[in-house]
Specification:
The chain is mainly beta. It has one helix and eleven strands; from the N terminus they run ββββββαβββββ. Strands 1, 2, 3, 4, 5, 6, 7, 8, 9, 10 and 11 form an eleven-stranded antiparallel sheet that branches. It is globular, with a radius of gyration of 22 Å.
Length: 193
């Protein structure tokens, strides 16, 4: 079977500080398609955004010469995925490609003239269930060129209670000023009634 979804959105916000008033107008649209066959699910999606920000100085705040009158950001993101599920095993691979101003921001250069990130992202996750235990592992690299990975486990205690634990690590990107990896771990109980 195939599924298609088409979400649309628009937004309007006003913000202010002691220097200027900021008005933002944003429009977003996305379309996606998925198709399942023989345990596989292939998906493809595309989203676009258009955001315009206008600035107006506040009395006693910044001079008008210090601020642009308006700023516009336009970008898009195309993402493809492939998932396979068989019995108690599941694996998923995704790849996303940025365009427009989103790609420019991801591939911006630092003070040394080196690119901070990249215009694409990729991720892989694997999950397996054995009796009351489910184990999940993932690895991903985002637009910021930082590699992340993690391992998690859940154990069904029965009666709506589940024991959950996991650990994840985020790598480094010295070009973006991230010099040390970050490791996080959690442990807890979840209840459903």
């Amino acid at each position: 079977p195939a599924d298609t979804f088409v979400p649309l959105g628009a937004g309007y916000t006003i913000g202010a500080d002691d220097r200027f008033q900021r008005t933002q107008r944003a429009t977003m649209a996305a379309i996606g398609l998925s198709y399942s066959f023989d345990g596989f699910t292939a998906s493809l999606g595309h989203e676009v955004f258009n955001m315009r920000t206008t600035f107006q100085t506040v009395d006693g705040g910044a001079d008008s010469d210090d601020l642009p009158s308006s700023m516009r950001l336009r970008g898009n993101h195309t993402i493809a995925g492939l998932e396979y599920e068989m019995d108690s095993f599941k694996a998923k691979l995704i790849y996303g490609q940025a365009g427009g101003d989103l790609r420019k921001a991801a591939r911006a250069k630092n003070a040394d003239g080196k690119r901070i990130g990249q215009g694409h992202q990729v991720g892989l996750s694997v999950q397996g269930s054995f009796d009351d235990i489910t184990v999940t592992a993932f690895a991903a690299q985002g637009f910021d060129s930082i590699t992340r990975g993690g391992l998690g486990m859940t154990y069904d205690l029965g009666g709506g209670a589940t024991l959950m634990t996991g650990i994840s690590q985020s790598g480094v990107n010295k070009r973006a000023g991230v010099d040390r990896p970050t490791t996080r771990a959690d442990f807890g109980l979840a209840f459903s009634f």
